[in-house]
Amino acid sequence: MTLWTSDAAARATGGRATRDFVITGVSIDTRTLQPGDLFVALKDVRDGHDFVARALDKGAAAALVSRIPEGVADNAPLLVVPDVLAALGDLGRAGRARMQGRVIAITGSVGKTSTKEMARIALAEQGNIHAAEASYNNHWGVPLTLARMPEDTDFAIIEIGMNHPGEIAPLARLARPHVAMITTVAAAHLEAFGAIEGIAREKGAIFAGLEPAGHAIIPEDLAVTQILRDCADAAGALVIGFGQHGMAKPVKAETVDGATRVRARILGETVDLTLATAGTHFVMNAVGVLAALSAAGADLAAAAKHLADWNPPLGRGAVEDLAGVRLIDDAYNSNPTSLSAGLATLARLTGGRRVAILGDMLELGPEEIAMHAGMAQDPAIAAVDLVHTAGPRMRALHEALPENRRGVHAETAAELAERIGELVATGDIVLVKGSKSSRVSTVVDALRRTRQSTAPGERTA
Predict the structure, then answer these.
(1) For site-directed labelling of 163, which of 187, 272, 397, 404 has its Cα 20 to 30 A away?
(2) How far apart are CA 377 and CA 420, in angstroms?
(3) CA 93, CA 176: separation in Å to the nearest integer?
(4) How much is the mean pLDDT over the chain?
(5) Does 113 count as an annotated binding residue?
(6) Which helix (H) or strand (E) element contains residue 213?
(7) What is the pLDDT of residues 32-52, one digit of tens each?
(8) Superfamily per CATH, domain 99-309
(9) Is residue 114 marked as binding?
(10) 318-450 has which CATH code?
């Protein structure tokens, strides 16, 4: 299917097409490029112009460039622009402008990608669905998602993230959502904002991009909920709160064999749904998703039914049964809020010794040591039998734990991975969690190797 013609792409970007071509996809990586893609020569660790020749050899329909790269013929299919990143933004803006469906944007300190995937799967059989790939939520990820969006899309789900102040509003204005959802506000990237109130204001900036009479889906029951509500009000949004006291709320939830059965009240309508996980934070995200989809005009009952097909992405809380061990793989990121949710999930599962293996939580600012130590007071800790820790920050938690729950501490996750056989026993239920840069995922890899398992979704030869 044609995504862009050379003329349409040139008009959108103000660039010059060296010859006619037809684009069926957009790529920034020659390793995953498909024939017919437009290769976007972004500058990152390497200059994408160095890979244009390879992209064309692999079947790229054209390349988006700011100059003709060395070794590429003058008559090669190129779209030449002054600035590649700006042109990608222009292409995304044009993609959004021509699409007549509904756009849902999602941000939050925790759960953006999981919630985006919930929304995508819940919308099955409700038209043509387009969603951000992986965690493409930054200054190039959002325009890339929009540039890839087919013109006949009925529902688009756009994930928007940030690391520093001022990043969300421009991306929200690019996406122009009809519905914008904030999953939660937590102490993530705190060192860039100084206080959680600053994070809340940055998350609330997503509402600045809403279309007229757009809907703001906000979490109730937070200390900063009023800040989010103020941001939504300033944007003229219609506000829907979700949570224990929201217009969208869980009425009943019970965990059975690692799955959670939920009855929820969504904007006056009662629906039943099942989630293939024990995490109560996923229940709340599902309630928020259903509120967002209902506000976007989707069929609520059908969306609730299809949530049963959703599973947490790898590294984000998926529960899997290995040979003799039940693993909660939550090794992609961590902050006090998401760690508390992970511990609560561990506490809820029954059948064996509960073991937590925890890596450092990063980007928490000057109070990071106190925040790590403070996790020893988390209510769910009382149900955890043993806590192993890795990293200089996690030493504070190790020292704050009661001796009967204090496991092994190592300076690196790799050291714990090497000792996995002595840290985990048959019958254990194991939570592995830490910020991505703590490399606690090496513990997950070691556990899977020793228990002769593959990750969910992977196949052995």
Answers:
(1) 397
(2) 26
(3) 9
(4) 93
(5) yes
(6) none
(7) 999 999 999 999 889 999 999
(8) Mur-like, catalytic domain (3.40.1190.10)
(9) yes
(10) 3.90.190.20
